[in-house]
Specification:
Length: about 190
């Protein structure tokens, strides 16, 4: 019986976890630019999907095996990125006390963490949009907010995983070819 996933792809999956954590800390906490976080999901997926097979030394073999390796590593990377996004959102949702810079109007008057986030959305003139969605208080806002965040995390997981399978396809197209002895011949540029 053979393995379903190559050992190299398992290692690459953990590399993807590290990559996801690094990207998450960098662009969700240190320099909080969520758009960059989203932008990096595609290259991260492509890279880890390709790397899973390179690490497995998949010079030959069936395409399904290459795709499974890429899928595994990319899914692990995508789950990491989605969980980090939700974790950071939960941290800021739970810790919101209504503080705002004096230049932005000073503190927001609110009673709880969810209410403070809701009041921020109202202060940003998003009240009519929220009302159309049926959001009228902190409790309905909390349900709306987390349904949106879960959908966003699912999309993030999907984009990273699909990009990772794309990386596996790229590997299948451009992988090193075996020589007659079973070793890849490496030539240095002349």
């Amino acid at each position: 019986m053979s393995r379903i996933i190559d050992r190299g792809a398992i290692v690459a999956g953990w590399v993807g976890v590290g990559m996801g954590v690094t990207i998450g800390i960098s662009f969700l906490l240190v320099i909080p630019i969520e758009a960059v976080y989203w932008f990096l999901t595609v290259p991260a997926g492509l890279l880890i999907g390709y790397y899973a097979n390179q690490r497995s030394d998949r010079r030959s073999g069936p395409l399904p095996r290459i795709l499974v390796n890429a899928l595994y590593a990319a899914a692990l990377t995508g789950v990491t990125m989605a969980v980090l996004l939700l974790g950071v959102k939960a941290l800021f949702f739970a810790a919101d006390n209504g503080y705002r810079d004096p230049g932005l109007g000073g503190p927001i008057s609110c009673t709880s963490n969810a209410d403070c986030v809701y009041q921020r959305y109202l202060a940003a003139d998003r009240g009519p949009q929220l009302a159309r969605e049926g959001v009228t208080d902190a409790a309905s806002f909390t349900r709306f907010y987390w349904s949106q965040q879960l959908a966003t995390a699912g999309l993030l997981l999907g984009v990273t995983t699909v990009a990772g399978v794309g990386g596996g396809v790229l590997y299948a197209l451009f992988r090193p070819k075996p020589t007659a002895t079973g070793r890849t011949e490496v030539r240095s540029p002349a």
